[in-house]
Write a structure and sequence with these properties.
The complex is a heterodimer of chains A (116) and B (118).
Chain A: E1 3-5, E2 10-14, E3 19-21, E4 24-26, E5 33-39, E6 46-52, E7 60-61, E8 64-69, E9 74-79, E10 88-98, E11 101-106, E12 110-115
Chain B: E1 4-7, E2 10-13, E3 19-25, E4 29-38, E5 44-51, E6 57-58, E7 67-73, E8 76-81, E9 90-99, E10 108-109, E11 113-117
Parallel strand pairs in B: 2-11
Antiparallel strand pairs in B: 1-3, 3-8, 4-5, 4-9, 5-6, 7-8, 9-10, 9-11
The chains are: A mainly beta (116), B mainly beta (118).
Chain lengths: 116, 118
């Protein structure tokens, strides 16, 4: 079964600095999708970035980038020039497709605090 | 584009009563909708998946008779919590995927519904 592990329950960063959130996953599939979601205090899930496993190039969205290491099954999120609005829970997720059904498997999340 | 709404955003009900939560895709056709449950300071757990016009598929451990899901149209899915008890108090989130959204495989999330059972 696919599992997603976020080993950092909490992280903090100074405003304007860079922080990296870790995520590892377990799968026997060769093609899949990985996501990072942000959940601010409003609890609205917001997609931060996605990565397709067959693409070797790491995804980038403005200040957010990933380090995707397929062989190591690692998918870390780097936030550059951190802003106060980046403070939130961050969830790593794996999209599993099996037998015609699909589901997102989420990690337990990392709470990010941004200090002014 | 790809907006999903939920109603109500917050509901309080008495133990033993039933409550219905609506999930709507506002600008695309949601062929598949997902219902999640999130306890405080925890992650999202998938409860069930529904395809328009078909019966929902429930995850292991989720009582289908307690959590009734109806995906009657391409823009609306409902979750009814029947005979609610305090332990059903939680944050319920829906997501949708479908035609006309930005991505065919990405799930778009609603803002969630906080259910409190007294």
């Amino acid at each position: 079964a696919q599992t997603v592990t976020q080993s950092q329950p909490e992280m903090s960063v100074q405003e304007a600095e860079t922080v990296t959130l870790s995520c590892t996953y377990d799968t026997s599939e060769s093609d899949y999708y990985l996501f990072w979601y942000k959940q601010p205090p409003s609890r609205q899930m917001i997609l931060v970035i996605r990565q397709e496993a067959y693409k070797q190039q790491n995804a980038t969205e403005n200040r957010f980038s990933v380090n995707f290491q397929k062989a190591a099954k690692s998918f870390s999120l780097k936030i550059s020039d951190s802003q106060l609005g980046d403070a939130a829970m961050y969830f790593c997720a794996y999209r599993r497709v099996q037998g015609g059904s699909e589901k997102l498997v989420f990690g337990k999340g990392t709470k990010l605090t941004v200090n002014p | 584009g790809a907006v999903v709404s939920q109603h109500p955003s917050w509901v309080i009900c008495k133990s033993g009563t039933s409550v219905k939560i609506e999930c709507r895709s506002l600008d695309f056709q949601a062929t598949t909708m997902f219902w999640y449950r999130q306890f405080p300071k925890q992650s999202l757990m998938l409860m069930a998946t529904s395809n328009e016009g078909s019966k929902a598929t429930y995850e292991q451990g989720v009582e289908k008779d307690k959590f009734l899901i109806n995906h009657a149209s391409l823009t609306l899915s409902t979750l009814t919590v029947t005979s609610a008890h305090p332990e059903d108090s939680s944050f319920y989130i829906c997501s949708a995927r479908g035609v006309g959204a930005g991505s065919s495989y990405e799930q778009y999330f609603g803002p969630g519904t906080r259910l409190t059972v007294t």
